[in-house]
Amino acid sequence: MSFGDKIRDLRIEKxxxxxxxxxxxxxxxxxxxxxxxxxxxxxxxxTYTKLSDVLGCNVSYLMNDNEAFIAKATVDFGNxxxxxxxxxxxxxxxxxxxxxxxEDDQIEFLQKIQKLYLDSKERAKKFTPKKYRK
Length: 134
Description:
This protein folds into two domains: about 5-60, 434 Repressor (Amino-terminal Domain) (Orthogonal Bundle), CATH 1.10.260; about 65-130, no CATH class. The protein contains seven helices and no strands. It has helices at about 5-15, 20-25, 30-35, 45-55, 60, 65-95, 105-125.
């Protein structure tokens, strides 16, 4: 179940509209729709905490390892980093389509790929011109 599906199901279960949810967590209606319909994720980890409080669930339920990876890439490297992280996850899913690896091996492989991506982005920062650094 995707992040957007989880948010929508919990919101409907609580009888909260998208507008009300947005007001409760400090997000716009457009942002909530982006989560539920467009497959977007919150940029700040605090938003996951607010959502879990409002929707009455654990943060870990809302944020699986992939979503945590995308959120970290978004915070550290912006929308471009999030797009690259999504691309890595999509390509990894295709790689596992044959089903040759055990689930534990797939998880370990994915964690190594995520760490490699984040480490390489950090190393690349030193080559970024100063005017483009945050």
